[in-house]
């Protein structure tokens, strides 16, 4: 059975493939081209950043040595510490507690998922959310 972490990896592969064929793209174009939702794109970018494969320059994402490590890596540490202290949380609660944006929380989740340090699961509700626990 495919896990949510597996989906993060598959989505990272989609982003990598598009950037490798089309070159640098803005976030909006990546969303249109990959057909990913925003949160799926953000976790994919975090995953690729952890692999050192994606960078951002002038509002464009491109393949190359990452320049995202300082920000996403620091936020991944905040997310890790928050979940370690608080236990299972959804992304909104993680962002509030860690004092980062939800976008940054999703980037960090992609990073931590690539390191195989977290487990994510979808919550069935009107507004689908993701719950995060440490492995």
Structure description:
With 135 residues, the protein is α+β, with helices and mostly antiparallel strands. The protein folds into two domains: 4-63, Arc Repressor Mutant, subunit A (Orthogonal Bundle), CATH 1.10.10; 69-134, Arc Repressor Mutant, subunit A, CATH 1.10.10. The chain is built from six helices and five strands, in the order αααββαβααββ. It has helices at residues 4-22, 27-34, 38-50, 69-86, 91-98, 102-114; strands at residues 54-57, 60-63, 89-90, 118-123, 129-134. The strands form two sheets. The protein has a three-stranded antiparallel β-sheet with strand order 3-5-4. It has a two-stranded antiparallel ribbon with strand order 1-2. A hairpin with a 5-residue loop joins strand 4 (118-123) and strand 5 (129-134). Helix 3 (38-50) crosses helix 6 and helix 5 crosses helix 6 (102-114). The longest helix has 19 residues, at 4-22. It is globular and about 40 Å long.
Overview in brief:
The protein has helices spanning 4-22, 27-34, 38-50, 69-86, 91-98, 102-114, and strands at 54-57, 60-63, 89-90, 118-123, 129-134. The chain is an alpha+beta fold and 135 residues long. The radius of gyration is 14 Å and the shape is globular.
